[in-house]
Design goal:
The chain has eleven helices and 13 strands. It is α/β, with parallel strands linked by helices.
Length: 379
């Protein structure tokens, strides 16, 4: 089990982690979520003794990582798949780690088979793709057959088959009674892999609960109801009946009704009693991504702004490009391709985005100077 108590880490005036306390129990996959800059990597580094907490402490199996006897045989971790000597082969990289930890060489070949790298075991790791590097990092984490495993973005760079393999591997390790702690930004994958979630934002704990409870606590479940579009009186009759029964009815853009406060069976009974025929009665349950976005919307540090060139489009057929004349014939689009980085004016009837600068006009003198410079450079 991993236990953090009052964990705090400051870098000068910046507080990366503040008074963070949680437990990661064995037998389950625990997802570690949070926006960029929330302190996830710092927390994992403190777990592994790579950073010293400013205050508080974190223990693994009741001991600080630095005091664990032969730590690689008790804790396996993947924090940075690129932290490999590129001149070594995959097998030699793992063999050097095994020798330092007193792990038999036979175990190296075992984990290479587990991660699917047995056929490239003798190739240098600097020629590996991102996905192959991830597999090698996972092999290093499994090398000591540890009871506690920490993974930071383990599916980064993997193809769909590799992602499925990692998902099944995590579940298998947890089913064996191991403690599995996984940090990831892929909400869809966490929804399929994790049993429990620890969510932090700006270095502080936001949530510590099961995936099911997290989604329920951070989303509003509702029912969608649809009646025949050509029977507005039935829509009004049903709305009145549901409202009278304590439900809240809100119209949706596609013509359906969103109902909260009443269960599906109660909605069905009320529709039957009102002699209203339903074309749709379906539950809506939020995804993990929806629930996560709702919880963390106030602790996101990096937000995008509107693109100043949003309203600028490539010209439609018939428009001329710089340096070319448009000779569009009926039924024939011009074949010229605009130069990279050049923006055409919007089509007629559309105004340019207010913040977008107009392309600078190219005068004959400017073109002549450019031609002379090009000629001189070629000489």
């Amino acid at each position: 089990m991993i236990e953090a108590v009052g964990l705090t880490k400051r870098y000068g005036a910046k507080t990366a982690v503040h008074n963070l306390s949680f437990q990661v129990r064995p037998g389950a996959v625990t997802g570690f979520l949070g926006p960029n800059g929330s302190g996830k990597s710092t927390t994992m580094r403190m777990m592994l003794g790579l950073d010293r907490p400013t205050s508080g402490h974190v223990t693994i199996g009741g001991h600080a990582f630095r005091s664990l006897p032969n730590a690689p045989r008790q804790v396996g971790a993947l924090l940075d798949a690129k932290a490999v000597h590129g001149g070594r082969s995959a097998r030699n990289h793992l063999l050097s780690l095994a020798q330092l930890a007193g792990i038999p060489a036979a175990r190296v070949d075992e984990v290479l088979g587990v991660v699917g790298l047995q056929d490239v075991a003798k190739k240098r790791s600097n020629g590996f793709s991102l996905g192959m590097g991830q597999r090698l990092g996972i092999a290093a984490a499994l090398l000591g057959d540890p009871q506690v495993l920490l993974f930071d973005e383990p599916v980064n760079g993997l193809d769909p088959e590799g992602i499925l393999w990692v998902r099944n591997l995590m579940k298998q390790l947890a089913s064996e009674g191991r403690t599995v702690f996984v940090s990831s930004h892929l909400m869809s994958e966490m929804a399929l892999t994790a049993d429990h979630l620890i969510v932090i934002g700006r270095g502080q704990l936001l949530s510590d609960m099961s995936v099911t409870d997290f989604i329920s606590a951070n989303s509003a479940d509702f029912a969608r109801v649809r009646v025949p579009a050509d029977r507005p009186e039935q829509r009004e009759k049903l709305t009145a009946s549901l409202t009278e029964a304590g439900g809240r009815v809100m119209p949706e853009p596609d013509g359906a009704l969103r109902i909260t406060g009443l269960g599906l069976s109660r909605i069905s009974d009320l529709a039957h009693e009102s002699d209203v025929r339903l074309w749709e009665l379906s539950p809506h349950r939020a995804s993990l991504e929806e629930a996560y976005m709702r919880m963390t919307q106030g602790v996101v540090d990096y937000r995008s702004t509107a693109d100043a060139k949003e309203g600028l489009q490539l010209p439609p057929p018939g428009y001329g490009y710089p340096g070319h004349e448009a000779h569009a014939q009926p039924g024939h689009a011009p074949q010229e391709v605009p130069q990279e980085g050049w923006y055409a004016p919007p089509p007629p009837g559309q105004s340019r985005h207010a913040d977008a600068p107009a392309p600078a006009p190219t005068s004959a003198a400017t073109a002549d100077r450019t031609e002379r410079r090009t000629s001189e450079d070629s000489r």
